[in-house]
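Record type: monomer structure entry
Structure origin: computed from sequence
Chain ID: A
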Amino acid sequence: MLRSLIEQYVENQRNKRELAKRRWEQEERWREEDRAVALAARAANEVSAARHGEVMRGLAGISYVTLRCHEDTWTFMARAAFGVWEPSWSQSTYDGWSRVGPNGRQLNLFTVDPNLPQGRITKSADGMQDVLVSGHNLVRILDVLRAVARSEDPARRARGKTLYERISVVADMADPADSAGKTTGFIVRIDDSMSERHPQKPSRALTTPAALTTTPAPATAVLLRDTPTLPASTRRREVVSPPADRIEALIAEIDAKQEA
């Protein structure tokens, strides 16, 4: 009996070790698969050095370009490129009340001067805004977005690659061989406004056809409706109580039968 218990205990321990080994091997395979997917996604977002150099050379000769984007998108890019930014800001110069620009403490947090004085950012009511950015700042923003595209965070990585591709279009539009002033008036749209892509149809007043139009009756008028009457049912029968003398006769008849 004791020997069988010992053998069973040893077998159970062996099975546990085998299950733990299989679980570890399965988890290792999953980790390798996740690592391969992450590397593939990072490679898809990678901007080659040749492409990046071409974009940098194209942007270096641009004076100013207007970026049209949502304030959240600009905040994301500005924080990555300049170190600090708030969505409510419309300038990077000092603002004592910190309403449209940084205060003294925030001003010292800039890693690079954005060079956005008053008038460079025009805000719209729907959150969209136009940012007049110099070529120097474009180079800084694109260089940072390339690094963001290689981030460990998938959402941040995808956002960085998308913004890089949309802003790098400026370099493709500019020809270094052209004379100066060719890029004046460029507006690069980064974000898509849903209200413009999917305009809402104006609501129309509901019109009632003439046939459905009802005219209110005068106050003295009385509307009468015919009350439908149900036909007499054959299953319904009126119950009529028998007369008193008939009841007495039946009782006497029952008593006579009992006595007999």
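Annotation 1: The first helix runs from residue 2 to 45.
Annotation 2: Residues 84 and 106 are 7 Å apart (CA to CA).
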